[in-house]
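Sample intake — SH3 domain-containing protein
Collected from: Saccharopolyspora kobensis
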Amino acid sequence: MFFVPRSLLLVGAGAIGAIYLMSANQAGSAPEAAEPCAFHVAADVLNVRSGPNAADGKVGTLRQGEQVEALPNVVDGFRELGGGRWAAQRFLLPAPGSSCAP
């Protein structure tokens, strides 16, 4: 049987614990947020709503040609703009180089 000094065992255990915590922090980190996409408004005036439905309350408007960032999420024909804002997908045209398809 080998004799290992207690202090060496404690240092080894501490090093193993530190390595475990560093690798767990990297592997268990929060998922990355979806990358925003860029769109141009195709309608004269596009209503921005509080949810993905035409019946949801209007929280703003966008004008034709205006560029807006949005998320990849599309629900029932409405694209999420972020911050509790949604707009009808059919009036949003992908900007050149945008990472999101309609």
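Post-analysis note: The longest helix spans residues 6-27.
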